[in-house]
Every structure is written in C-alpha cells, then in structure tokens.
C-alpha cells in the first residue's frame, strides 16, 4: 500500500512538471549602436537551440553601416545554425533559466506565443529581444511572418 502511495505521488509530481513549448521563434534588435539577430528552437524533447549573434559600438548615425553589419550577422546566424547544440534549461511555465541559475534567459508568453530572449552583453544589464513564432526560419529574422 505504501509503495502504491509513493508511486502515485511521484506520478502526480511528474505530471506537474512544466514542459516547454515546442516551436521556433526568431527576431532581431537594432538600437543604440547594437544589432542582435536571434533564433530559438525547442524540440519535443524540451531541449533548446538558441543563437543570438550581436555587434555593439556601431555608429547609429550611419544607416549603411548598421545595414551592412545586420546582413553580416544574419549570414552568421543562418550559416552557424546547423552547429548550434541543443541544451537544457529550467522552465517554470513562463521563464527559462540555465539549470540551477537565477537570471532569466528567455520568457515565454503563452497567450501570444511570443518568446523574449534576454541578451547579456559584457557587464551591461540584460535587455529584451522580442521573438515571434514562425513555422520555419528565414534568412532574415527581421522579416515578417
């Protein structure tokens, strides 16, 4: 009887575990001399592939430089994607954290299916990059739908 109770409790606890959403998200960020392009893919196994190449310190007054750097980062994202290894994150139903970590790495909005990637560059505070859900990745993560 006691073994059955313990097994039932374990099954209930396992049923309460939050499983990350399955899908793909992409997007980018351009502001204050910083460019980020990003992709996230979560498989049925709950493992997460994430890549977010960035560049900082650009002169925001020169749009041709921003565009050129953005295009270079997009190529880096596309060409490097096959080499991105999936990894585990702790997921509480909304926030992804590195295993045992405190800092949010991604935040998922269940209602909109939007993923927000928290970008940490150097010693600067993290900033959010909103990613939209996509059925498949694009060469340009800024592209609509």
Fold topology:
Layout: H1 2-16, E1 23-31, E2 34-42, E3 48-51, E4 54-55, H2 63-80, E5 90-91, E6 95-97, E7 104-109, E8 114-119, E9 127-134
Antiparallel strand pairs: 1-2, 1-9, 2-3, 2-4, 5-6, 6-7, 7-8, 8-9
Short summary of the structure?
The protein has 145 residues and is of the alpha+beta class. Helix content is 23%, strand content 34%.
Could you explain how this protein is built, in words?
The protein is α+β, with helices and mostly antiparallel strands. It has one domain. 23% of the residues lie in helices and 34% in strands. The chain is built from 2 helices and 9 strands; from the N terminus they run αββββαβββββ. Strands 1, 2, 3, 4, 5, 6, 7, 8 and 9 form a 9-stranded antiparallel beta sheet that branches. A hairpin with a 4-residue loop joins strand 7 and strand 8 (114-119). The protein is globular and about 45 Å long. Mean pLDDT is 88; it is low at 4-16.
Number of helices: 2
Give the DSSP E fraction (strand runs of 2 or more residues). Answer: 25-35%
Low-confidence stretches: 4-16
Rounded mean pLDDT is 88
Number of domains as seen in the coordinates: 1
The gross shape turns out to be globular
Distance between the termini: 55 Å
Written as H for each helix and E for each strand, in order along the chain, the element string is HEEEEHEEEEE
Global structural class = alpha+beta
Structure summary, number of beta strands: 9
Rg computed from alpha carbons, rounded to a whole number of angstroms: 18 Å
- Outline the biggest β-sheet: 9 strands, antiparallel
Helicity range: 10-25%
